[in-house]
């Protein structure tokens, strides 16, 4: 059961009464007449073979208010794309699959690359960016939602709660972020959010003062969640990071472009579980190791635009302050877990904190050594300015792929 506390400067929608999903969906179906809703699903082909996505599709097939479902499909060859079309055919809503590795989208990507506009890194950010362009070109949705395809505890109530604050015709919210407790198999999860982001934000506030940006980020109860909904026009100017800093980068862009009075967060579920990333201590290009580096760089880059000056000595201070705060939080998490009958491996938690602390220095060195790094994919406003007809051609290419012309 959620509390009712309004935390920070972002409006919080709690789960106070366990309102029936059918009641939420009935209202959303009514809202959809004024604000039709589109859903983006960024997916790897391998997720079609996993335990989560089939159940997600079964739940989505019962959702009565969606105007369209847009699936971004990565790492799929021709036969796998054909299988994906069959896999998603059970959806009764209008739906399209972006075959990101197919020849049509590949040709458009090459055209973007020639203009310096192509996403340079493969991954979720690139996938979401192309899906965003298609959603804008299709014009079906006034509100656009997104969630991952590996949620093992998915039910359609999660989606209804995610859409509700932005789809409501008498609310003025432009963006909604989901949050939830990360619990699975009797364990407390969510290590990167708990052990990196929260203590790092508090360390940065202690060192650099109560900057509005830091207060804003610290208002989100789960800043790394992959579930959010927004008005379609927000996508126009949104620059999406191509690396693991996607979620922090999106929140940073919203802070830059929109009033915090128009942003909110919502309690989506009593428990949430999805595919867990390994720590990958020995490989800085994978797992939580890579994620922590990218998140730290995303925060440093944003703070630099706020006028914060960094130095090698400053990054050492950040590391030391973060490390002390993170260790104190481990103590609090351990006690909280014990009271709730959950397991928490304190040795593994401290090893993760040690890795994250080292990566704060590594990310700082990368930030200082490469000031010309361009981590964001250009906004679709910029793409339209450079190649005005590209969104229409993207829409036509996806339609041709989904019509069977492959």
UniProtKB/TrEMBL annotation:
One of its GO terms (molecular function) is transferase activity. Keywords: Transferase. InterPro entries: Nucleotide-diphossugar_trans (IPR029044). The keyword Transferase applies. This is Glycosyl transferase. It comes from Halomonas salifodinae.
């Amino acid at each position: 059961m959620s509390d009712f506390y309004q935390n920070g400067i972002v409006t919080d929608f709690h789960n106070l009464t366990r309102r029936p999903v059918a009641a939420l969906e009935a209202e959303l179906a009514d809202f959809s007449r004024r604000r039709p809703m589109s859903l983006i699903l960024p997916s790897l082909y391998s997720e079609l073979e996993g335990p989560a996505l089939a159940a997600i599709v079964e739940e989505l097939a019962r959702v009565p208010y969606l105007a369209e479902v847009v699936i971004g499909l990565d790492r799929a060859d021709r036969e796998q794309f054909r299988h994906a079309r069959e896999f998603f055919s059970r959806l009764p809503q209008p739906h399209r699959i972006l075959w990101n590795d197919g020849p049509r989208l590949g040709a458009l990507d090459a055209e973007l690359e020639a203009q310096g506009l192509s996403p340079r890194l493969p991954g979720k950010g690139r996938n979401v960016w192309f899906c965003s362009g298609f959603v804008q070109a299709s014009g079906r949705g006034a509100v656009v939602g997104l969630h991952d395809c590996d949620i093992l505890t998915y039910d359609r109530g999660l989606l209804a709660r995610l859409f509700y604050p932005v789809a409501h015709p008498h609310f003025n919210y432009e963006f909604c972020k989901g949050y939830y407790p990360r619990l699975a198999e009797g364990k407390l999860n969510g290590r990167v959010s708990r052990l990196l982001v929260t203590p790092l934000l508090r360390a940065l506030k202690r060192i650099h003062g109560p900057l509005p940006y830091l207060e804003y980020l610290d208002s989100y109860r789960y800043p790394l969640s992959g579930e959010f909904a927004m008005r379609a026009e927000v996508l126009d100017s949104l620059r999406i990071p191509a690396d693991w800093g996607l979620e922090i980068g999106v929140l940073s862009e919203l802070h830059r472009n929109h009033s915090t009075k128009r942003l909110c967060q919502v309690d989506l579920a009593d428990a949430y579980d999805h595919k867990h990333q390994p720590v990958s201590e020995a490989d800085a290009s994978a797992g939580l190791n890579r994620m922590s580096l990218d998140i730290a760089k995303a925060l440093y880059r944003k703070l630099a635009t706020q006028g914060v000056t960094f130095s090698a000595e400053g990054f050492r201070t950040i590391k030391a302050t973060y490390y002390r705060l993170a260790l104190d939080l481990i103590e609090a998490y351990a006690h909280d877990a014990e009271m709730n009958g959950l397991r928490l491996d304190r040795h593994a938690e401290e090893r993760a904190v040690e890795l994250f602390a080292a990566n704060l220095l590594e990310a700082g060195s990368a930030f200082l050594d490469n000031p010309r790094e361009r981590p964001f994919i250009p906004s679709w406003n910029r793409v339209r300015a450079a190649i005005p007809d590209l969104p229409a051609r993207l829409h036509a290419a996806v339609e041709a792929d989904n019509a069977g012309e492959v």
